[in-house]
Amino acid sequence: MSELKQLSSSEVRQMFIDFFAQHGHKVEPSASLVPVDDPTLLWINSGVATMKKYFDGSVVPDNPRLVSSQKSIRTNDIENVGKTARHHTLFEMLGNFSVGDYFKKEVIPWAWELLTSPEWYGLDPERLYITVYPKDQDARKIWESIGIDPSHIYEDEDNFWDIGRGPSGPDSEIFYDRGQEMNNVDVDDPENYPGGENERYLEIWNIVFSQFNHTPEDTFEPLPNKNIDTGMGLERVVSIFQHARTNFETDLFLPLIKKTETFSDNKKYGQSAAEDISFKVIADHVRAITFAIGDSALPSNVGRGYVIRRLIRRAVVNGKKLGINDGFLYKLVPTVGEIMESYYPEITQNADYIASVVKSEEDRFNATLNDGLDLLNETIADVKSRNSDLIDGESAFKLYDTYGFPIELTREYAEDEGIKVDEAGFDAEMKKQQNRARNARGNTKSMGVQSDFWINVQDESEYVGYDTLVVDDAKAVVVAQDEANVPEAQPTENPIEVIFDRTPFYAEMGGQVADTGSIIDNLGEEVGRVVDVQHAPNGQNLHTIALSKALKNGARYKLVVDRARHLKIEKNHTATHLLDQALRNVLGGHTQQAGSLVEQHYLRFDFNHFGSITEDDLEQVERMVNEQIWREIEILTVETDLESAKEMGAIALFSEKYGDQVRVVKINDFNTEFCGGNHVRNTNEIGIFKIVSEAGVGAGVRRIEAVTAGDAYQLLHEREELLKQSAEVLKAPQVKELPRKIEALQMELKEVQRVNDSLQSKLTSQQATDVFSNIQETAKGTLVAEQVQVNGMDQLRQLADTWRTKSISDVLVLAAVVGEKVNLIVGVSDDKVKEGLKAGEIIKAIAPAVGGGGGGRPNLAQAGGKNPAGIEQALSQAKEFLA
């Protein structure tokens, strides 16, 4: 057997990419973990997830051969992380892909060459095993033809990749034999084979031969273009080259584990199985947290933000198990950056921002954790008071959902008190939440069925809308009805789709909506209206037309864009660029575009930002945009190669894919961006820019809506009218007098409130004299127990403060009806507290009488209830408690 190479994780990754690049593959950069235009995914969860648009035929790639190392997140089995050798939330998937180009006879020999050639991975062929689909004898024959021992090839019915509707097909899995010394089952165990449940044979690569469409009718039809989709888990392969028993003993995780050791209470990895799990959970989770925040996802209570929050909380709890009680996760972010520097330098570049987000969430959770412990203690006390030994699932889920308490933590605390947790009930509540999240993502299928019609349309179409909004002699080269090319289309209720050889109509892209307008025949009559324009799979502008007359394939027509609408869109698009840059300048370089919409009458801009935006910052952004408009800057557009554009400092969006030639829009030295949209020639054409609203719309995503030109004037005019109406109502002689009038009204209101508070205080004081005069004797001390008339719990506390200051009795119990609810407060003197009497125990004994519950400190406790009729009983029970 040949000696195993010693490769770092960065070397393993780069070698894979270099191999396929040498075989004509285009290197696709690792896409953002946040899916773009894909409502079916919460996260990018595989290499092929970023290639779906190529495989379903909605887009034809420039190069049908692609290779990538794609960062991915999966959280469907988060509870197993740290407990198994290879479960991760964040992982990298190495993959090579063919979109209708090569197939089995090319990809199988390439896979074998990469794995076994001394120039590449150089793995021992004797340690490699293959599985194939029994009906896929073609694949088996190819594997045998390149010299693989037939005894190393296994047939397995499970070797068929199918996710429902969409591309599917047989696959071949490749396993590496790590030796019996790495195994967790005996040699004669029935699971001891490649593909079985064992640790000896490690699956390292899956090659999918995507050759069928799984149709809605549940049949499997041959694809018009056969594809290759492969996936090699980086973490698994690295564990082989680094002789690691698990993925965690590799250079992808060990530096994080070693760093965590320095924060712990003298804990060391490898000393305790239970503590090792905590080390692994922390190392795994901080990688996922760091990359997710780096890709502009932020902690929240919904969607992917909830996943980040859950991972941070699980990591913090596991840190506490290692004796780490202060914030520490944020200190691990630079280590993640160091590990990933070679392929993901952006982590180090944004480390300060990422760490600040993690620290904020850690601090928040550590504070919440104490509140959660209080609630958990109250819940346990309530269970005991009912002579029960079970925390119900709803209460356990509240601890999890509100305070971030993992169920295992609740279980541990409960077990210490001899109490169990209804985990079935907890799971039911969790399922309800998962269903809500799933419904929020929609029911769109994960990958569409290929349509061979538009994929195979190769007719060229030139977009000329940058220079003109009218084309006099455009030829209709494709006229389609029901995805069939027809010689002539007649008017029907349904629009048709047409490709012209030249067009001034912009196809929707980059947030800018499509142009609309008219199709005119040689008689000067309107044939139809263009209602939408999208890109066909091969990039042509595909016009959706509502016909009013017949339209002939091959005929020539005059194409006229709605000029007034188009010019308004141009103004809003250029204003969007100005807004994007102003936000970066004012809020910081971490802000990134998270989406945009450029319409005729307004623009909408979504961006990533952690926290709210002050009015001063918003005003500064608006002023900065208008200053660029009033500077009357000429807009420069340049078509150049990608590298030259980057050297110009052009801002690129992670959601966009750029070809070798790109279009750059430059607004003097203020802003330079990649953009294929339409823009004004000079910023003065925008006229004026006005922000309409700013708000949060998701986890760490803010949204600004704004208007320009005539729409901005209309907005300002409407606001002026509102000011005039307000001045009239407040009897201000001029609008400018409004602030003074409002200030005077506020002063009057404060004075009325002060007088009201003074009167209320006097009433409370008078009531105290009456209440405290009725002192009762009990076996455990003197008691004042009365119902009072107050406005709320604050005034009850005032009475309790007066009682304590004057040492009126040993115990105080007050009740009040506020609205339809009951407020209870119990006070115990310090001397009685020392004797073992606790306010919290009294409140728990009497609160059920008013239909409520509560708790608090030994010397003061409070409760709420919904049954005012039970007040007399509660006061009576207080006296009985002291008997």
Automatic annotation (TrEMBL):
<dbReference type="InterPro" id="IPR018162">
    <property type="entry name" value="Ala-tRNA-ligase_IIc_anticod-bd"/>
</dbReference>
<dbReference type="Pfam" id="PF07973">
    <property type="entry name" value="tRNA_SAD"/>
</dbReference>
<feature type="coiled-coil region">
    <location>
        <begin position="735"/>
        <end position="769"/>
    </location>
</feature>
<keyword id="KW-0694">RNA-binding</keyword>
<dbReference type="InterPro" id="IPR018165">
    <property type="entry name" value="Ala-tRNA-synth_IIc_core"/>
</dbReference>
<dbReference type="GO" id="GO:0000049">
    <property type="term" value="F:tRNA binding"/>
</dbReference>
<keyword id="KW-0963">Cytoplasm</keyword>
<dbReference type="InterPro" id="IPR050058">
    <property type="entry name" value="Ala-tRNA_ligase"/>
</dbReference>
<feature type="domain" description="Alanyl-transfer RNA synthetases family profile">
    <location>
        <begin position="7"/>
        <end position="718"/>
    </location>
</feature>
<dbReference type="GO" id="GO:0004813">
    <property type="term" value="F:alanine-tRNA ligase activity"/>
</dbReference>
<keyword id="KW-0479">Metal-binding</keyword>
<dbReference type="GO" id="GO:0005524">
    <property type="term" value="F:ATP binding"/>
</dbReference>
<dbReference type="InterPro" id="IPR003156">
    <property type="entry name" value="DHHA1_dom"/>
</dbReference>
<dbReference type="GO" id="GO:0008270">
    <property type="term" value="F:zinc ion binding"/>
</dbReference>
<comment type="similarity">
    <text>Belongs to the class-II aminoacyl-tRNA synthetase family.</text>
</comment>
<dbReference type="GO" id="GO:0140096">
    <property type="term" value="F:catalytic activity, acting on a protein"/>
</dbReference>
<dbReference type="GO" id="GO:0002161">
    <property type="term" value="F:aminoacyl-tRNA deacylase activity"/>
</dbReference>
<keyword id="KW-0862">Zinc</keyword>
<dbReference type="InterPro" id="IPR012947">
    <property type="entry name" value="tRNA_SAD"/>
</dbReference>
<keyword id="KW-0820">tRNA-binding</keyword>
<feature type="binding site">
    <location>
        <position position="675"/>
    </location>
    <ligand>
        <name>Zn(2+)</name>
    </ligand>
</feature>
<dbReference type="GO" id="GO:0005829">
    <property type="term" value="C:cytosol"/>
</dbReference>
<keyword id="KW-0067">ATP-binding</keyword>
<dbReference type="InterPro" id="IPR002318">
    <property type="entry name" value="Ala-tRNA-lgiase_IIc"/>
</dbReference>
<dbReference type="InterPro" id="IPR023033">
    <property type="entry name" value="Ala_tRNA_ligase_euk/bac"/>
</dbReference>
<feature type="binding site">
    <location>
        <position position="577"/>
    </location>
    <ligand>
        <name>Zn(2+)</name>
    </ligand>
</feature>
<protein>
    <recommendedName>
        <fullName>Alanine--tRNA ligase</fullName>
        <ecNumber>6.1.1.7</ecNumber>
    </recommendedName>
</protein>
<keyword id="KW-0030">Aminoacyl-tRNA synthetase</keyword>
<feature type="binding site">
    <location>
        <position position="679"/>
    </location>
    <ligand>
        <name>Zn(2+)</name>
    </ligand>
</feature>
<keyword id="KW-0648">Protein biosynthesis</keyword>
<feature type="binding site">
    <location>
        <position position="573"/>
    </location>
    <ligand>
        <name>Zn(2+)</name>
    </ligand>
</feature>
<comment type="function">
    <text>Catalyzes the attachment of alanine to tRNA(Ala) in a two-step reaction: alanine is first activated by ATP to form Ala-AMP and then transferred to the acceptor end of tRNA(Ala). Also edits incorrectly charged Ser-tRNA(Ala) and Gly-tRNA(Ala) via its editing domain.</text>
</comment>
<dbReference type="Pfam" id="PF02272">
    <property type="entry name" value="DHHA1"/>
</dbReference>
<dbReference type="InterPro" id="IPR009000">
    <property type="entry name" value="Transl_B-barrel_sf"/>
</dbReference>
<keyword id="KW-0175">Coiled coil</keyword>
<dbReference type="InterPro" id="IPR018164">
    <property type="entry name" value="Ala-tRNA-synth_IIc_N"/>
</dbReference>
<dbReference type="InterPro" id="IPR045864">
    <property type="entry name" value="aa-tRNA-synth_II/BPL/LPL"/>
</dbReference>
<dbReference type="GO" id="GO:0006419">
    <property type="term" value="P:alanyl-tRNA aminoacylation"/>
</dbReference>
<keyword id="KW-0547">Nucleotide-binding</keyword>
<keyword id="KW-0436">Ligase</keyword>
<dbReference type="Pfam" id="PF01411">
    <property type="entry name" value="tRNA-synt_2c"/>
</dbReference>
<dbReference type="GO" id="GO:0016740">
    <property type="term" value="F:transferase activity"/>
</dbReference>
